[in-house]
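User: I'm putting together notes for a lab meeting next week and I want to include a structural view of one of the chains we've been expressing. I don't have a solved structure, so I'd like a prediction I can at least talk through. The sequence is below, exactly as it appears in our construct file.
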Amino acid sequence: MTSRAGAALLFALLWTSRHYEFPQDYFNHPEYRTEWWYYTGNLQAADGHRFGFELTFFRQGIPLAKAVNTTWRPDQIYLAHLALSDLDGGHFYYTERLNRAGPGLAGASLQERRIWNGNWQVQWASGTQELTAVCNRFALQLHLAPRKPIVDERQAVHYLSFTRIATSGEVKLNGRAYRVNGLAWMDHEFFDQEEYWRAGWDWFSIQLDSGEELMFYNWRTKPADSSGTYVNREGKVQYLDSTSFHLAPVDWWQSSRSGARHPVAWEIAVPSLGLQLSERTALKDQELIGANGISPTYWEGAVTYTGQIHSQPVRGVGYLEMTGYAQKP
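Assistant: Thanks for the context. Below is the predicted structure for the 329-residue chain, given as structure tokens.
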């Protein structure tokens, strides 16, 4: 076995500053132990039917005691989660897959300008992205066009976000094709601290109809390290520390599968912005149950917001992620 000290030398230190360079920093950072690319969004068909979607690519580095010179070497493991929330139909669908990089089975390549796991992929081209994902219950074909520059979230990890992505395309479900439009959010993180991955947190993405966005991380094990980000209409960023905002759960949903009790409704306040929001969801069961020893069980779903900002009425959509409420499978 590789010693703890020896393993640490295989990966970059987290607590160093980084000058980001694009497009290369959109893609793979194999020198870091853990990396993920998160795509979530709210979509609506022409008839008003609402959907939420999630496509997430995870890469986990595995330190090996010695070099393994084979295409199938297990030093990089790729996990992907795919989910569709049929908000008006009242159903939540999800699936996952686990691969080694192997002979092109999964990866995140600057040369190919894509991130993929099997036939789930995001292809980058000329400032836009094409998201494609097919499983036996539904399929997504989406065109993503960021409307604001990427944001450095300045967390304890390397964390980049596209906070407002105009999204259009097609959702296929139960033999029917829906032409859809909406908004997506993309997060890309890479880091080398196992403690971060294991910590329980609540994460909120908020896209307001005023053209503003917010993100909050609520670290339940280390509340003082909680933080947030506010992006104004023009894309200017304001960072919020844990004393700048308030998050309070007001309603819970009990899972019959994991036993977890998830807070699915929250009240949010940022006094300096004159912001008060109520978060709610049309579908309380948006829980993903990990099917292997690597995948966590967590709640991630489409939500809506109502309230005010700058003392003006506002509405919005976004996603809520909650980890650490369920025991590992």
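A couple of points you could mention at the meeting. The two ends are 25 Å apart (CA to CA). The chain has a mean pLDDT of 89.

User: Perfect, that's what I needed.
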